[in-house]
Write a structure and sequence with these properties.
Chains A, B, C, D: One of its GO terms (molecular function) is phosphatidylcholine lysophospholipase activity. Four copies of one chain form a homotetramer. By secondary structure, chain A is an alpha/beta fold. Helix content of chain A is 52%, strand content 12%. Chain A has a five-stranded parallel beta sheet with strand order 2-1-3-4-5, sandwiched between helices. In chain A, helix 7 links the parallel strand 4 and strand 5.
Chain lengths: 221, 221, 221, 221
Amino acid sequence: MRLAALLIALVMVSAAFINRPKRVVFFGDSITQAAVKPGGYITRLTDMLTQKGKGSDYELIGAGIGGNKIYDLYLRMENDVLAKQPDVVFVYIGVNDVWHKRTSGTGTDANKFVGFYEALITKLQAANARVILCTPAVIGEKTDFSNEQDGDLNQYSQLIRDLAKRRNLPLCDLRKAFLDYNLKNNPGNKEQGILTTDRVHLNDTGNQFVADLMYSFVTAN
Amino acid sequence: MRLAALLIALVMVSAAFINRPKRVVFFGDSITQAAVKPGGYITRLTDMLTQKGKGSDYELIGAGIGGNKIYDLYLRMENDVLAKQPDVVFVYIGVNDVWHKRTSGTGTDANKFVGFYEALITKLQAANARVILCTPAVIGEKTDFSNEQDGDLNQYSQLIRDLAKRRNLPLCDLRKAFLDYNLKNNPGNKEQGILTTDRVHLNDTGNQFVADLMYSFVTAN
Amino acid sequence: MRLAALLIALVMVSAAFINRPKRVVFFGDSITQAAVKPGGYITRLTDMLTQKGKGSDYELIGAGIGGNKIYDLYLRMENDVLAKQPDVVFVYIGVNDVWHKRTSGTGTDANKFVGFYEALITKLQAANARVILCTPAVIGEKTDFSNEQDGDLNQYSQLIRDLAKRRNLPLCDLRKAFLDYNLKNNPGNKEQGILTTDRVHLNDTGNQFVADLMYSFVTAN
Amino acid sequence: MRLAALLIALVMVSAAFINRPKRVVFFGDSITQAAVKPGGYITRLTDMLTQKGKGSDYELIGAGIGGNKIYDLYLRMENDVLAKQPDVVFVYIGVNDVWHKRTSGTGTDANKFVGFYEALITKLQAANARVILCTPAVIGEKTDFSNEQDGDLNQYSQLIRDLAKRRNLPLCDLRKAFLDYNLKNNPGNKEQGILTTDRVHLNDTGNQFVADLMYSFVTAN
């Protein structure tokens, strides 16, 4: 009797999971916080999935907070991500870890950036989430590497690429994609206005560009 | 039968705890890392307890790592503190959170300092540890508040005092004690050499001074 | 004949100088740039002199530019000060030399601050100007030395006091006066709103307070 | 009689100048301060001129001081450069203007860097010196623009290139030359050890490389 009841419960739970849409959490900073607004990259991804008739297969959840660095993600991971039992987590962080070195003296040392990132991945994987790493796109869109913090942003992006390789995780290399796009579409070497409004945050073109880049990562598997 | 066995086990475990010396962890940065060496404040505390015939009542454990800030403590708390099942934890942190703003652009914002500190306390208390907060003593020993980062260090110390009050926790106010000592013993307004070797790290007098200040907190209860 | 003409010319020039009002230049940053507006401390000083019937004895000239540090003053001294052949020059600088360390990584090292200040004084004195040194008042009005940059601002103010003593120059110690005022009038330990609008720039009370402090320096000799 | 004496004096002075070796001052920071030592780039330039039989045609003078930024050059220009009545002045500055933003919060804002540089050129030209501008070579030799301050250093180098163009002055583009050299000779993307000992200061190869680059600028005209 009891065994039978247990089996039925298990089947029901499994069914709930099977029928449950795939839950995708976007974990990041102000860029991701804005992404759930109309025109934001998460909103666009949801629309794209709906247009392809996959709207009910996915549940996209924004978990971005302005000013966040890698260690802020670590602090709020349990409440804001793990509590949602995600199937997939995009980690899109790093701009503030670099930027705040110059604006407020409170950036993140490279070795600690990697240390917290590793710990974050370990905990997300322990909760059975598929983790997708993103490189921080830009702090300034000039294409000749003369944006003030290009050197550091290149370094941190490389650390993330190394991490993806080391942990065998998918990499959504926004920084590389943004640079390639700007090399074609920013002949005037402007520091903003191509994919961003203000050197960092995405304009409409930028939000669509990120949505396009992330789409295949969302629908993989 | 089973109940009896359980009760016996419980008694045995309790007995083990009762006989176990009180375990005190000192959780901090390079100042605490150096404190377990000969002449360090933890070594001195151990010696003081032994001299008073209380050597077997306490087990003092250093858990300091150079360069640590509040969020580094949070990251390694489980492995380095909770795993040791401490009865008491001194949290002695804050110098690098302020200092690194100037030396490497990687200090800690005040609001995030408090946020991580709160989370740390909550987890330590959940593990039944008695938590004792320490203010960061000095970055420079000049007594006229002209050490470069005195303003910020005063602010962070006040945040810790407020936190102790809000959480009803004992406060070991090293910053206040160091200033009072220097006002009496540093008539030349020197920036180092009174209680520190280099504006930050403790000399022999400084280690004894800290040990004296902490002694009553260790033996309380 | 020629000698006679020369003597006449000399007398005429001297007369022009004798009748000329005493020219006082206020050389500084944004605080001084705003001081020539209605309600500003220079405007108030002019009004005070007029009320005492001394309006025609003095010509007060603002030479403040926002964001200036000591070396900016040195660069534009010839055009903006010496060209006006001043009798008296107030040097009111130092806030940005300290502040910009934190806001943009472009403050001024203490030893270079002194070096440029010395060179500035030497050139102003060579042009027969009486030089009056001012300490930078505040970056934050809290009275417990917990404004973030109090330590550094205290240090630079002390360097200016030492300089005044070494060069035997009058010192208008705004920093000391502001602190004394706040100790009496800022019981809530607020960081702005007592003498400043925004921790740095003067409100009406602050402008009057500075005008009152400077008045006797203007009218001395 | 008097006219004759004057003419003779004039001829003698002219002769002195005609026979005088061309005086070349290297005006810069610690890189140039070290350049007069054995093996340094100025010492090498002198040796190269001697080997070509031009040793008596040139007098090379080092005027480098460690830690100098553009405004430090401006402050000491009269004593250290103009007093030597140079025919040619190499201005080799910019590393500390960028570097100190990160190491001590006391770098130089881009607009002020240009302002002081313009003023320096104007004064040097007024003294009839031929001015040669150099870009700051490297802070780190990695070739993928991931040295932390590459972005800023690229920006300041571009400002110097623009300045050379605007003022129609010869440009010794060390930064471009160093990058080209490293792209060929630093396949391991090391941050030091190719042309520098420590990411900034020149090793033997670096000193010879700079001497080779500067040689034609010295002997031009």
